[in-house]
Design a protein that fits this description.
single chain, about 725 residues, alpha/beta, Anaerobic Ribonucleotide-triphosphate Reductase Large Chain, 2 domains, three-stranded mixed β-sheet, 28 helices, 18 strands, about 40% helix, about 10% strand, RNR_lsu_N, ribonucleoside-diphosphate reductase activity, thioredoxin disulfide as acceptor, Rrm1, nucleotide-binding, oxidoreductase
Length: about 725
Amino acid sequence: MTLGLNNLDVTKVTYFKLNNEINIPVDGKIPLNKDREAIKAFFTENVEPNTKKFASFKEHIDYLIDNNFIEKDVIAEYPFDFIEDLYQELLAKHFQFKSFMAAYKLYNQYILKTDDGDLYLENYEMRILFNALLYAHGDQKLAKTLAIEMIEQRYQPATPSFLNAGRKRRGEYVSCFLLQVTDDMNSIGRTINSALQLSRIGGGVGITLSNLRESGSPIKGVANSSSGVLPVMKLLEDSFSYSNQLGQRQGAGAVYLNVFHPDIIDFLSAKKENADEKIRVKTLSLGVIVPDKYYELIREDADMYLFSPYSVERVYGKPFSYIDITKEYDNMVADPRIKKYKINARELEDEISKLQQESGYPYVLNIDTVNRDNPIEGKVIMSNLCTEIQQVQTPSEINDAQEYVKMGTDVSCNLGSTNIYNMMKTPDFGKSIRAMTRALTYVSDVSDIQAVPSVANGNKLNHSIGLGAMGLHTYLASQHIEYGSPESIEFIGVYFMLLNYWTLVESNEIAKERNETFYNFEKSAYANGSYFDKYINTSFAPKSELVKKLFAGIDMPTQEEWSKLKDSVMKDGLYNAYRLAVAPNGSISYINNTSASLQPVTRLVEERQEKKNGKLYFPAPLLDNDTIKFYKSAYDTDMRKVIDVYASAQEHVDQGMSLTLFMRSEIPEGIYEWKTDSKQTTRDLSILRNYAYYKGIKSLYYVRTFTENNDEIGSNECESCSI
């Protein structure tokens, strides 16, 4: 008789100890065999004795339905024999976890358990089964395709989708939300309520405060009445802290502010460690919205003017976020009706760098770059908690009863990732991507966030999705290619060109089937065909012999095929307004035994702090004596190489990518040619931000700094070990 998970004595199990031994070199070698032993011990000591047993598959499913664990309607869409056969087909794949971290994360965070948390009620194959059945919505062929894509780890839905698929008692399938506040108390109140509701149901919430009048501006003609954006930030932080999903998550909110907003210095100061407690925000993430004009003023070492959103809206008749500041800057400077404040551009740039050194914030959104590449009618004004979602929004108007006089559009995003290493072995690249596009589209179709009507409206009109990728460094290492090399940059560009092509093909097919396009399709660059011109005029097929070899056996769309796709899209439209985005996907990448996103690994053996069980260790995927030399730490990599890799992918991505910069406080000699000493300075960060801007990067996520004091990188010994 099992004691159950709640009575498991972690001091008597061996898998934690075995996993920890990976980080203790033996004769100068990393003992990877200890991780394999930890996997076996985990299943023997934890999973097998604590999984509820059933006499048959039918009894198992009936139990899950009868006890309100699984949605009956999802099961009812298919003949039961089909479901059982599909499950058996998944089991016949004999999936094996390749790291202890993967198995531990899956069973700890994703696998369904009894209400008392004492027994597991499913395995990996069954979690995949329920995902496939849900997304296929009764389509047996699609369900089978998706199940195979997931068990062979070519496709990984984002955490909210993968966790909640098929469950009766669940959160939302969508990953995150974007909201804007307009400059009135009704909008502020509604946004705080929305933050509470969205934080309760799941996902992170990004909010732009750029439209709010600055501190000291008038309210109803009374001068110096407004308190500016800081009190609203505090209200939002408290809302996220209060509505924290039963204590599972803390402060998953981000606020954005335009660098030309008069409160920008106070906004940045609120995140500093020494900030007054009255204004300091501890858990809220900060992002800055940066127009091209800012970079021009930095380059010229000029003064810059900050403009009152209150007076700008009165003059232009629309909220501050919707003004093209780069285009209108000189006009606004010259307009006496617009209140303005003068600061030095490089002093602000230095403040941004100082805060990034101290906290990793703010994120940076290059808003003009985003809108130049935006194929959809309208204006992108902000991003999300992880900077990869960039979609058109329109403002709402709310009356004193907190009712929508005019319904605007805000954003909910549902995400999924391809696993690059496994995708490069797929028997049919196009079939895989088309199936993933269908799965993500289903999540958009069924999402209806009634608590925030503007989010529901945006999703209903746009059907946006976000397919991305993870595991670039793992794949490059497996092929003995250096991260950041010309071949790696060429490879990722071709890979994302293929993602772009096949998601377009499938979105066009869905539009044909349903005789429906996203809202305002006829005003988009897709409808007039201009979006496709670069693909028709230039070949993006592999050019170097090495990259050609990597893509051998994978169909490469010709310029003629791009031209045919253009004609088809102009004729029948697209169903999804947005299709591609690259999330950080750090946690879910462990389950896929691959490196996170498109970034380099931070160490050969990654260290993770678990709340209850101390430190866990994750060896770089596919690490062996052949790949070790290609697994250089991100902290020892020239960040311009990372930027170049992301820029190559960005050319084909209609939204953004979460690009983290990894820096050492003591920079190794020879990485950056402008360095005369080893100490990281604010100038280093400024140079890299500007380099990213000039390379066409839309957004920068965190700046992570490794300091010798906190040893963030884990065991330094392992950095130079052999296997």
